[in-house]
Amino acid sequence: MKKLLFLFLTALLLAACSDDKTNEKPKEEPQKEVSPKKEEVKKDEPVEEETIDVSNIDTSVYEYASNIEVTDARDVNDHITLMIDMKTDNENLAFQHVLYQTYDFLQQKDIEGAKTIGINVRVAGNKIVKFTVYPEKFVPNDKKRMSDVVLAASEIEMMSKKVEKYGKKMGSW
């Protein structure tokens, strides 16, 4: 009998609660309170995350790359950095491909405003070359090798011994 009474009271209580909720209007949260909190979160984000914006930079010219990481820091220091992972395991060929394809990369409007472009080339996870291109020194010239035109506007900062030896032998760098 007590169980029956308990079940009846529970059912009655649930029915009463459900009736109250159906008659109540849902509370609407004001949008104005939510927006400032979102803006505050954006202000606390690290500067590095704010400077990464690859939506404007087309890297499709690097057709022999397996992965390209772009850091667009033009708003902070007028610089773009490319970290290019190549599909090949041939370091010499990888660097040649990057030089030739950088010739086309430098002619796009997407990089306007960059005073320097740092390009890092990796093969099998190892960095083989790091060089900086100065776009204002870059002058397209169809009568010269594309790699020579890119190197004329660049400064090589690091190069593996294998690539350096190959470049000297070929008279390229």
Helix content: 40-55%
Our measurement of the CA-to-CA distance between the termini, rounded to an integer number of angstroms, reads: 97 Å
Based on DSSP secondary structure assignment, what is the total number of beta strands? 5
Structural class given helices, strands, pairing? alpha+beta
β-strand amount: 15-25%
Q: Could you characterize what this model shows?
A:
Helices cover 45% and strands 23% of the residues. It is α+β, with helices and mostly antiparallel strands and 173 residues long. It has a five-stranded mixed sheet with strand order 1-2-3-4-5. Strand 2, helix 5 and strand 3 form a beta-alpha-beta unit. Helix 5 crosses helix 6. About 13% of the residues have low confidence.
Describe the SSE topology:
Layout: H1 2-23, H2 31-44, H3 47-51, E1 65-73, H4 74-77, E2 79-86, H5 91-105, E3 116-123, E4 126-133, H6 146-152, E5 154-159, H7 161-170
Parallel strand pairs: 2-3
Antiparallel strand pairs: 1-2, 3-4, 4-5
Helix pairs in contact: 5-6
Question: In summary, what is this structure?
Answer:
With 173 residues, this protein is α+β, with helices and mostly antiparallel strands.
Supply the key terms.
45% helix, alpha+beta, five-stranded mixed beta sheet, 173 residues, globular
